[in-house]
Design goal:
Number of domains: 1
Helix content: 10-25%
Structural class: mainly beta
CATH architecture: Ribbon
Distance between the termini: 104 Å
Strand content: 25-35%
Number of strands: 15
CATH superfamily: Umud Fragment, subunit A
Oligomer: single chain
Strand order of the largest sheet: 1-2-15-3-4-13-14
Order of helices and strands: HEEEEEEEEEEEEEEEH
Largest sheet: 7 strands, antiparallel
C-alpha cells in the first residue's frame, strides 16, 4: 500500500503591523497644535474677550456682559499681547484712539485690566465743573433723558438705597438718573449722574503727550483719571502703550441668577436682548 503523503499546513505569514491608529492619533495631535496656534494668533492680534467686573460703565455696559474687543485698531504693545509679555516700550502700527471710544487698558501701576471711555487725548485740557465736563474750554452738552431702570439681580444689586424702587408688576428695580453727553466731535453716549460728589469738580488737567484721560460712564461710581493712580482704585492718566483693545460688541450677557446645577437657569438668566449689541 502506498504511503499517503501528508503535509502540515503552512503557517500563516505574520500580518504587517497596522498603522492607521497611529496615523489618526498623530493627525489629531497635529490638529490640536494648529488649533492652539490659531486661537493664540486670533487672541493676540485680532479679538480678545473681556468680562465687565463692575458698574463703572453703566448704563452701556453691565456686570455680567462678556465682550469681544478688537486688538488691531490701536496697534500692538506689551499690554495687548497675551500674558503681558514684555516686548519693550511703545507700540507698533500705533494709532490714537478717538474721543468717545470704549477701551480696555492696563492699570498704570498693577497692570490690572480696566475698561473706560476715552475722554481726553494728548494736548487736551479736561475739567469737571458741578458734574459737567469741559474739553479745551468747551462745555460738553449734557441732556437729561429717561431714567435708566433695570431689575435688581445678583450682578446689579443697586447698592444705593435711594434708587431702589418697585416696578408696576412688583419687580424690584434700580432707577438711575440718565443723561446724554455729546462730545465736540459729535460722538454721543449715555451717562449716569447721582448728584454732587467730590469728583464732580476737578482742577483743569492738561493731558501730556503719550497719555489718555479716561472716565467711566457711571460718573459717580467710577475710579478713573479724575483720581490718582492707586492699585485697585483710581487709574490716573493712562499711557497709550497700556491700551489693550477697543470694545466691539457684547458676545453674551447674564444677570448672575444661573446655577451650574440647574441647566434651565443658564437660559433664563441670559439677557438675550443685549447679546450682539455693539458698543
Amino acid at each position: 500500500m502506498s504511503e499517503i503523503e501528508t503535509t502540515a499546513p503552512a503557517s500563516a505569514t505574520p500580518a504587517e503591523p497596522s498603522t492607521p491608529a497611529k496615523k489618526q492619533e498623530g493627525s489629531f495631535l497635529w490638529f490640536l497644535v494648529k488649533l492652539v496656534l490659531v486661537v493664540l494668533i486670533f487672541r493676540s492680534f485680532v479679538f480678545s474677550t473681556f468680562s465687565i467686573p463692575s458698574e463703572s460703565m453703566l448704563p452701556r455696559l453691565m456686570v455680567g456682559d462678556y465682550l469681544f474687543t478688537a486688538k488691531w485698531p490701536y496697534g500692538y504693545s506689551r499690554a495687548s499681547l497675551p500674558l503681558d509679555i514684555d516686548i519693550g516700550a511703545g507700540r507698533i502700527f500705533s494709532s490714537l484712539p478717538e474721543r468717545g471710544d470704549v477701551v480696555v487698558f492696563k492699570h498704570p501701576i498693577d497692570r490690572t485690566d480696566y475698561i473706560k471711555r476715552v475722554i481726553g487725548l494728548p494736548g487736551d485740557t479736561i475739567q469737571m465743573t458741578d458734574g459737567v465736563l469741559s474739553i479745551n474750554g468747551e462745555t460738553v452738552t449734557k441732556e437729561r433723558i429717561a431714567d435708566f431702570v433695570h431689575p435688581i439681580t445678583p450682578y446689579n444689586a443697586c447698592r444705593i438705597e435711594a434708587f431702589r424702587k418697585t416696578a408696576a408688576d412688583g419687580t424690584p428695580v434700580c432707577d438711575y438718573p440718565r443723561f446724554r453727553e455729546t462730545l465736540p466731535g459729535g460722538k454721543s453716549y449715555e451717562v449716569l449722574d447721582f448728584g454732587q460728589t467730590e469728583q464732580d469738580n476737578t482742577a483743569p488737567v492738561i493731558v501730556p503727550a503719550g497719555m489718555l484721560f479716561m472716565m467711566g460712564d457711571n460718573r459717580d461710581n467710577s475710579m478713573d483719571s479724575r483720581f490718582d493712580a492707586v492699585p485697585g482704585e483710581g487709574v490716573g492718566l493712562v499711557p497709550l502703550e497700556n491700551v489693550v483693545s477697543r470694545a466691539s460688541f457684547i458676545a453674551f450677557s447674564t444677570d448672575g441668577d444661573a446655577s451650574w446645577f440647574n441647566p434651565i437657569s443658564w437660559f433664563t438668566a441670559a439677557r438675550w436682548d443685549r447679546i450682539g449689541d455693539g458698543i
